[in-house]
Amino acid sequence: MRCCNVSPGNLAKRFSSRRYNVSTTVLRSLFLIALLSYGFSAEARSQANGLGGYAIDFVALNSDSGNADCGKAPKSAPICRVRVAPDVHEMELLLASGEHVSRRGDSLMFVYRGEAMRVWLRGGLQYPLSRVVGTDLWTITLRVEKLDELAFSYTFAPGDLGPTDLPEPIEWRGPLAPAGPQRVDVLQGTLVERILQSAILQDTRSLSIYEPPAVAQRPLVGVVYAADGKSVERFAKVVEPLIISGSLPRFVLVGIHAAQGQRRSYEYVFGLKRDNAAFLAHEQFLMEEVMPLVERSYAVPRTAASRTLLGYSNGADWAVATALRNPRAFNNVIALSPSWPAPIAQPSEARRVAFFIGAGTLEPNFHKSALEMSALFKVHGVVHRMRQGLRGHDMTQWEGLLPESLMWTFGREGRAETGPLTNRPSASFHTAVTMHSGPKKYCSGLF
């Protein structure tokens, strides 16, 4: 390097010629410090570069999403990113084997190949991948607590793929992870798709409707209306064995398909836009077009107690907000990984509704939101059950919680854990909710 061809003596001559009073001894000391600094930086670069001289261009993490590097994350954080040198040969071997994730002790390395401006790890763990410089390889290594007990699903989202466009997720399960729910491969009940030409939405919208098989002349006891309706077939394969065994009553499961792109968030999250026009139109669509169709087509009760709203992620926000705004139409909510508790003004009306809330510690902001919602409901005497655990933001968690949430909702387990309470102050929910940060923080970059 050019800096290494400059001696302390030559530096002294240059400085003295410019009338600087600097001794050769001092310059020798400065020169040695510079060489040591260069050596340390070279060592750091070799660690970043890894085998073969490859380097990783690490993407900055968004602290608002609860993501952090190990060493900067809180000690209580169950997950953090590890900055490790890339081993391109290992990555190539992993991809050649048809796999995308490799375990290293208490860490998982994810690898994706493809040309893109950016790539996200989506599913149970949501982090941006970093590119291996000069290649089409993207990677991230995450350290996770109790990795043996973890089960999650993952997929990769290159570019700006939204939640409705993601590839089918892949499941990873640790050796000590609890088994997933029992499911059937082929449904005995009927699953139909209806396409509605909505005058309210001024668009077509699909419904996926599951009716369980007839079992011992047991009647249909209600309807569960679910956001992100494409998930209904998966959910039906979980609930059908429970219905046949008698663990659950017979009910109709109606999946309302989500809008594409950003409109999904606008329809699901009350308060995301100031005028709430998309949310209100979707609410009217449910109340005036979907519900009458379902209740005409199936022999179900037409009472608030027999209706349940089910959603995950932003769909959970929709379920909570819709029930709180219409407590005389819906008495039950299953909110899995909610991102924002909706404001309401009448706690006495909210007490008509029972809420099952679930979230995982590996989805930090959703977990925080769920805890805040539970605390808010507890203060105001709203019946609810809160479930949390080592889980991420994915279908593995939501399907795993589905049996318990439905059993609780339909009264097969006690629901008296948190109320309702009496003689509580009638303070507005809106006042309490506005103490939280805004909904965009919880929705940004996450689905």
Query: Could you please say which CATH topology of the largest domain applies here?
Result: Rossmann fold
**Uncertain residue segments:** 1-22, 30-48, 412-447
CATH architecture of the largest domain: 3-Layer(aba) Sandwich
Order of helices and strands: HHEEHEEEEEEEEEEEHEHHEHEHEHEHHH
Task: Walk me through the structure.
The chain contains twelve helices and 18 strands. The chain has 447 residues and is of the alpha/beta class. It has three domains: 2-43; 56-173, Immunoglobulin-like (Sandwich), CATH 2.60.40; 190-443, Alpha/Beta hydrolase fold, catalytic domain (Rossmann fold), CATH 3.40.50. Helix 8 (347-350) links the parallel strand 16 and strand 17 (354-360). 38% of the residues are buried. Residues 1-22, 30-48 and 412-447 have low confidence and may be disordered.
What is the structure about, briefly put?
The chain is an alpha/beta fold and 447 residues long. Helices cover 32% and strands 23% of the residues.
Note the topology.
Layout lengths: L7 H10 L6 H26 L6 E2 L21 E4 L5 H9 L4 E4 L2 E7 L5 E5 L3 E2 L1 E3 L4 E8 L6 E8 L11 E4 L16 E9 L4 E9 L8 E7 L5 H14 L4 E7 L6 H6 L8 H21 L9 E6 L1 H12 L6 E5 L10 H4 L3 E7 L3 H16 L4 E6 L5 H15 L19 H5 L5 H5 L4
Parallel strand pairs: 13-14, 13-15, 15-16, 16-17, 17-18
Antiparallel strand pairs: 1-7, 2-8, 3-4, 4-8, 5-6, 5-9, 7-8, 9-10, 11-12, 12-14
Helix pairs in contact: 1-2
